[in-house]
């Protein structure tokens, strides 16, 4: 997994008076923020950080290796990321494939990530598997290199190729990062190439390369280990010494010095994108590395330029010239250098010369007006809430402690970052703007749809990228597990066999309180005081089901428009009022519900709810904002046509539900239904937003009495709930047929395979979820294990059933390399058809243990606690429904599993939707022996 774990930006706590007048100086009272920890260093140089959090019986472990793509050499790019993949395969004292398979079976989650600068491995497990995770993690760290085989090497090459195809080759704008890096950074600079690297470099990798990389960079002295959660410090120190103490220190890894770059000239490049439907402009300026004193002001500059309705670039590009739905500007800092990015995905057929000119105009306005202190204050208030949200789980705390230790030399650097951010002044922001942006050279990319060269910035030069040709029937891409390596085990003074489980932690439902408001709205709450935050959600039944006929998207558009000001506040004033509280308020429409959500510090809950009330009861109906949003929606709907996964999903839902059912159409609508929507339609739908039958959910640092007292303000919101319509499901479900959609030159084929199964209120709903675990429940499922681990056909493969009052589908989803389309289909077809027959008593036991233990970590966050409350209010579940589900899981027999599978997962009743390259795959999919029908990208038969 290629990822970047960003440092927390918002590290300041401010006492804010929202009544302060704009012309008055901003008053700020700083309060220190810190994460408690204990640090020690083993004799081998491994730095270990411990953080205790006993709120849930779980433990997070993160190992940060100080090696990323910046340690690679030209000709061997992508190796750090490739090695991350190799590390999960095998090690001396752990069974082959156990890392990916066993941890989910213990009820845990695991993954890794590689950035420019580091590789991180992380897990969250129930407390009883704590020593097991130290065993498996330390073995991956220190005892894996002898187990590497040529077969494993070749298989993992295919997996990484599939990841690149999925994220880069088969994605609109996927090559843009490569173009920017190769032009922003000079040849030989560690950031001249992307993290995922070059596929020819990867294909040429050898076992000797793997061993050289490991021996050079995977020593204990080049890493930080963080353990956070329900732990005892002294016991943990003993266990860490046992499992990690014998890992070799490794050679000294020379620290890299910062290598910021400057450009002698501005470079303008264009690229015709096979998938893109909209023109996109990026401008990237070289700036400063992470932890540099100017990085904090540059982060705030990004927010000031485009992050609000008062921002000059937003005003010019979006509101005045209407060239795009939005614009983003942000600072991206890495260990050695940094970049300040301008990014605009413009409306269809928009000339990027106009976008560039508008950006210049917006920057001129910024130079003239300077920094508004009130905007600066708002940004800092928003960062206060982000601070708490950024460390609200044990895993996030582990990331923060580890990253700051490894790169700043101080696990508690978060406190210093808070002070440095708090100290940023308007003068600092203007200084960094003048120093790094104004009149400086940059790299500019015009990424445009095929055959629309006229949209590129004038005089841009064509960018060159290496594009893989995926050929059909390439023998050397067939890979397998192969024989295990032969080697002598590394001698240890400890028994390095698998340790036993500890005491089983038992999941207990959090205390749930309920109440009612006079206006008919029910209230559900969970009090949780780990952080001074609250999250809330108002769920109003209806959602897309109440959209007028042939006008899908009305509810969704209303949810956007209602946040564009109130009767007494302009859009900018409302945004500022929310921001000054450090709060967020959002609305969205789902298939069956309309949602008003938010989060804030508990101390600002009352003022936040007052704004929610104003938004609900005093809509602005701003016609100019409505027109802007509709133009943005049109752009978004056009952009969706560039996404193979979205194309597959649209056709799949139409085939399942029939074109007369609302669920056949995305909630945001289509370009066809979009044309039918008017502002009056939104005003009519607004009458459906009433408190009767609605539910208010809250989780966080608020008691029942405090919450109900604040919510009394909503009692003036009244109304009678509408009748929710019902829709018939199609009698013919297009079963046992393949539907193929051509996206020429696709490097992968996207699969959506399944059938309508059941409603969340069906007595068998939980049983079907349980029954799916062995098939497609994460990386331990048979789909993943076969298609990725054994065959190397895909980056991931999963299955599951949706949750809704309406009958929801069971779906298998994956993207496989193009020339493995037929073989992947054959595997899935056989696996599903024979699933009941192949389900064993061992699978019953495995499912039981996996799901019972997973519950210990599944409800840690406030968002997860809100989901509990929504399930109770929407589906009529009891307040202890999770515990009852656990009892039902324990009671399930092998016959119960087989009956559930046979009732709901009949393979001949499933439809197969495939999005891929017709030129090479049409004849292949016909070999599966099912009827094949071609559809266009909108799901219509050709």
UniProtKB/TrEMBL annotation:
Q: Name one GO molecular function term.
A: peptidase activity
One protein family per Pfam: Peptidase_M16_C
UniProt KW keywords: Hydrolase, Protease
InterPro entries in alphabetical order: Metalloenz_LuxS/M16, MPP/UQCRC_Complex, Pept_M16_N, Peptidase_M16_C
* Residue ranges of every copy of the Peptidase M16 N-terminal domain listed in the record: 48-170, 527-647
What domain of life does the native source organism fall in?
Bacteria
UniProt GO BP:
proteolysis
**Domain spans labelled Peptidase M16 C-terminal:** 205-383, 676-851
Q: Which residues form a coiled coil?
A: none
Give the protein family: Belongs to the peptidase M16 family.
Supply the name of the protein: Zinc protease
Q: Which organism is it from?
A: Bizionia echini
